[in-house]
Amino acid sequence: MSLLSHNREVWLRRAEAFSNSNWGVGLLALIAFADSSVLPVLPDLLLVPMLLVRPDRWLVLSVVCVVAASIGGLVGYGIGHLAWAAVGQTLVDMYGQAEHFERYQHMVEAWGTWIIIAKSFTPIPYKFIAIAAGVASMNLLTFTIATVIGRALHFAIVTALAVFWGQQFLMLIERYERWLVGLGLVAAIGFGLAYAMR
Asked: What is the count of structural domains for the chain?
């Protein structure tokens, strides 16, 4: 038994208890909501570990993310449509997206529904597309349908990857634990140095 195996077992027990709790599911919903509306917090970072320890709850966890993220998208739309000057502009500036936001708005105007759905496959933060759709006064029903489809596609992909290949991933981690920890430390130090030297 390796030195870290006890820690892994404790982590797995805690992660499973968290995944089973209403509090854990509620926190997942809150993060999915916030990510689609105002905060740069990825629900995938909580969803994946929850799916790894409880793959049998894939439907519940996915639906929670889709519903919460869709509601968050509607809040983002509202920020763009009703509160751009008071809130939206501040959020975009705060996250350093002012230069890109005009491009997001033009993408929404040019592509409409398709850019909302396609966003599920891009690194563009969803909140900015939602806010841009509000600023562009995209039809609310069209936006809502596209949001639900896009968020469902995104979480379906994440869930499928975690459920179908999650156990193989956990076995890989267990097998190469020390190497992966070392590689992670080297990468973190490298990124830290690169950031400090820029």
From this structure: 1
